[in-house]
Transposase
Amino acid sequence: MKRYELNREQWRRIEPFIPGKIGDRGRHGADNLLFINGVLWVLRSGAHWHDLPERYGKWKTAHKRFTRWAQAGIWEKIFDVLTEDPDNQYIMIDSTIVRAHQQAACGKGGRGVRLWGVPEAV
């Protein structure tokens, strides 16, 4: 198993919620695990999409698919399922796992970062 990839147990838990299974409408997603491992590589390494290693496929295709899944709410569905588990230590996310892009260090004009759903302090 590579550094940022899912193990068998992690994949088993989320596989039923991933589109493109046999029996789903549309195309069969034969490379769903490979795609998710590629997404994890980008998110955990903090690299740009165009730096995605070739073993995960074309970076532009992966980015488009990531965006489609985000718009369709697939990532939220996966996170919701995983957070229902009382032993959810594997979903802890901090700066040691996911890096912000260097340009995310401050907001426009250097006034700090605005968090989603948190009103900006005046």
